[in-house]
Design a protein that fits this description.
about 525 residues; alpha/beta; 7-stranded mixed beta sheet; single chain; 5-stranded mixed beta sheet; globular
């Protein structure tokens, strides 16, 4: 078989392609963005950038109902958005294989939190695979489709930034043909209403033992014997860390969940001390502590509860360095708006207009919070800028501005705009339209009318959409025209009601790409 260097993202995508998927859906979000990009560019599989993660998951679930296979990918906080259909889909089950690839971001390299998606899989009572390298990422994704169909459950493949964004050799395989369409009506299993839910939940609970049998059958979780009475439990990529640091120690490698607790019990009770390595929260460490008091890890304070597991904490727990040996490290270089960025020019005009409070959102424009601009006062999550501004304005505060990007507005800002209009609030909404999901690599949006496969489609008229939502005024400005932009902002602040300004100019980096 051919072996090539692949990103972890690409390996997951290749595994799905080889498994014979018919559709892939996603919303851009680091570190998982490249999964769908690889499928769109390197296969004939239909692929879509959905307007948000909830829609992406629902589309993939719809494909599964036809008996065909679908991959849905997103970053960890995107799973919060998709959690509504995700949780209930485990009750209803799937028909064609449905795999959810989630990219977690310990260290918060490009995220607003460090949440651990393993808890979502446990919450939903579905299998979760956690590869340790790119080859496993491809192989586990491929196998996940078979297991999904055998269990009639969605399966999660959880990985992290360090694996998804690093290259490793991967062996390619043959591509399976697509499944035949087999769409069947079965309301007792496909309609989530009270008369079905308890029975479906009971059946989901009965599947838990079968899930564990599959995990045991494929030896996802395995003990590698060692020569000492000190051992390591290593989850996902930390298995590679363990082999590099202390290969002679016994290692329990965890690659799939739920874990048979007896396996953990047998491992820890046979040893004098066990170090638990896992990226994210102390998910496995909490289980290990039920069976032994000699557990070291995040909860014991030997490893940090925050951030990514880097060389320093690992070297320290294995006695390679002392705390006093730590160096200062690299000087921090926080991200900044690019030279010539239209967002920068907009913020200059906004600052001159002197709003009372500015609620920000998720995207390139969030960097406007940094010096020297310091133009944003709060940032919570996708789409929250308009809702937060509405909440502040509801208390009689005047001069409140919400700043949101074009893609983020489509993602989850539209309901918030309608809500503000409906509740007769006085806010200024500024939509920064740079013609792309720029922060994650210039993916297209419905506003520019290009699909994930590069095909032309209908364009969404952002101004008409805002008018249809009931905005009291809608103005489109070029942020490079500072005087006009400033005057529009002043009018929006002075006028009552919900006023919208669309600051429209393409990202300068995107413009360079299109010219080259």
């Amino acid at each position: 078989m051919a072996k090539i260097l692949m990103l972890g993202c690409d390996a997951i995508a290749q595994g799905a392609i080889e498994a014979g998927i018919s559709y892939a859906s996603s919303y851009p979000g680091t570190p998982a963005t490249q999964i769908l990009e690889y499928i769109a560019k390197n296969s004939n599989v239909a692929a879509e950038w959905s307007v948000n993660e909830k829609v992406a998951y629902e589309v993939a679930y719809g494909v599964s109902l036809t008996g065909r296979r679908a991959l849905c990918s997103m970053k960890h906080v995107g799973l919060n958005v998709a959690s509504d259909p995700f949780m209930t889909s485990a009750y209803l089950g799937v028909r064609g294989g449905l795999v959810l690839a989630v990219g977690d971001d310990p260290g918060a390299y490009s995220s607003q939190n460090e949440q651990d998606s393993r808890f979502y899989a446990s919450f939903a009572k579905i299998p979760c695979f956690e590869p340790s390298d790119a080859q496993e990422a491809k192989d586990m994704t491929y196998l996940a489709f078979d297991i999904s169909e055998e269990l009639a459950l969605p399966v999660m493949v959880r990985s992290i930034t360090r694996l998804l964004h690093c290259y490793a050799p991967v062996s390619l395989g043959n591509i399976n043909p697509e499944k035949e369409i087999k769409l069947e009506k079965n309301p007792d299993y496909l309609i989530a209403v009270p008369k079905n839910v308890i029975r479906l939940h009971r059946e989901l609970n009965k599947k838990q033992e079968k899930i564990k049998q599959f995990i045991e059958k494929y030896e996802f979780n395995k003990i590698f014997p060692g020569k000492e009475k000190r051992g390591i439990i290593a989850c996902g990529i930390t298995y590679l860390y363990a082999r590099e640091l202390e290969e002679s120690l016994p290692i329990l490698k965890i690659s799939a969940y739920p874990v048979d607790e007896n396996l953990i019990k047998d491992f820890v009770t046979a040893l004098d001390e066990v170090i638990v390595l896992e990226e994210g929260y102390p998910f496995i460490e909490n289980i290990a502590r039920k069976y032994s008091s000699n557990i070291r890890g995040k909860l014991s304070g030997d490893l940090p509860l925050e951030g990514e597991l880097g060389p320093e904490p690992l070297f320290r727990i294995f006695g390679r360095i002392k705390s006093s040996d730590s160096e200062n490290g690299v000087i921090p270089r926080p991200p900044m708006l690019c030279p010539g960025c239209p967002h920068r020019e907009f913020y200059k005009a906004l600052n001159e207009a002197k709003p009372i409070f500015v609620t920000g959102d998720i995207g390139c424009y969030t960097l406007g919070a940094n010096p020297p601009l310091r133009a944003i006062d709060t940032c919570l999550c996708m789409g929250a800028s308009i809702s937060k501004a509405a909440g502040i304005a509801s208390q009689g505060v005047k001069g409140v501005v919400a700043v949101i990007g074009d893609s983020t507005f489509i993602h989850s800002g539209i309901p918030a705009l309608i809500n503000a209009v409906y509740n007769k609030l006085n806010i200024l909404v500024c939509i920064l339209d740079n013609s792309a999901v720029a922060m994650t690599g210039h993916q297209p949006t419905p506003i520019i009318g290009i699909t994930a496969k590069g095909e032309e489609t209908k364009k969404l008229d952002l101004a008409e959409l805002c008018k249809a939502c009931g905005a009291d005024s809608v103005e489109v400005v070029d942020p490079y025209d500072k005087k006009t932009t400033y005057e529009a902002i002043k009018r929006g602040l002075d006028n009552p009601g919900v006023n919208v300004i669309i600051a429209r100019r393409a990202c300068v980096l995107l413009a360079k790409k299109l010219k080259s």
